[in-house]
């Protein structure tokens, strides 16, 4: 594993963000999108309502997060496959730990409405500063490479 944390050097348009999400990996990708009034749950395809003001795409190797800033989007990459062209590194040395995660069933009363999700075995990946062991990011990931 070659952990990398970085931000896109420039803000992206809607079309650039969509292209980035579609080219990021050949393995199955999953999405979790957030609007002020709802969330998508974990879905296997970008919904027609894309873009959302915030969201993330994840698979076994990486998580891409986006957040709207005006008419454009900032993008953060949390990856185990090393540096990516066009991303400016954050920090120097990163370590990762993978932990189990569980999706609550749609009948769980902790949430106002049941969250939909695909049949994906999710996990969490902690990105920690190698010098201080401080956890800076917790990324969604797929538990096993598909």
Summarize this structure briefly:
This protein has one helix at 14-23, and strands at residues 4-8, 30-34, 39-43, 54-58, 62-69, 72-79, 87-89, 94-100, 122-129, 135-142. The mean pLDDT is 88.
Task: Describe it.
Keywords: Plasmid. There is one protein chain. This protein has one helix at 14-23, and strands spanning 4-8, 30-34, 39-43, 54-58, 62-69, 72-79, 87-89, 94-100, 122-129, 135-142. With 146 residues, the chain is mainly β. It has one domain (4-142). The chain has a seven-stranded antiparallel sheet, covered by helices on one side. Strands 8-9-10 form a three-stranded antiparallel sheet, with no helix packed on it. The radius of gyration is 15 Å and the shape is globular. The two termini are 17 Å apart.
Chart the SSEs and their pairings.
Layout: E1 4-8, H1 14-23, E2 30-34, E3 39-43, E4 54-58, E5 62-69, E6 72-79, E7 87-89, E8 94-100, E9 122-129, E10 135-142
Antiparallel strand pairs: 1-6, 1-7, 2-3, 2-4, 4-5, 5-6, 8-9, 9-10
Rg: 15 Å
Number of domains: 1
The overall average pLDDT, rounded, is 88
By DSSP (H or I, 4+ residues per run), the number of helices equals: 1
Count all strands and give the number: 10
Main-sheet strand order equals 3-2-4-5-6-1-7
Helices and strands, in order, run as EHEEEEEEEEE
Q: Helix fraction?
A: under 10%
What does the largest sheet look like? Answer: 7 strands, antiparallel
How large a portion of the residues is in β-strands, by DSSP E? 35-45%
Report low-confidence residues grouped into runs of 5 or more: none
Shape: globular
Distance between the termini: 17 Å
Keywords: Plasmid
């Amino acid at each position: 594993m070659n952990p990398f944390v970085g931000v896109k050097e420039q803000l992206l348009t809607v079309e650039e963000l969509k292209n980035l999400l579609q080219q990021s990996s050949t393995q199955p990708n999953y999405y979790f999108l957030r609007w002020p009034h709802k969330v998508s749950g974990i879905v296997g395809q970008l919904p027609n309502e894309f873009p959302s003001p915030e969201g993330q795409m994840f698979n076994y190797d990486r998580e891409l997060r986006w957040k709207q800033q005006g008419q454009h989007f900032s993008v953060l990459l949390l990856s185990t496959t090393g540096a990516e062209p066009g991303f400016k590194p954050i920090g120097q040395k990163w370590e990762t730990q993978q932990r189990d995660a569980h999706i609550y069933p749609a009948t769980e009363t902790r949430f106002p409405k049941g969250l939909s999700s695909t049949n994906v075995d999710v996990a969490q990946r902690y990105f920690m500063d190698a010098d201080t062991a401080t956890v800076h990011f917790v990324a969604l990931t797929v538990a096993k490479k598909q």
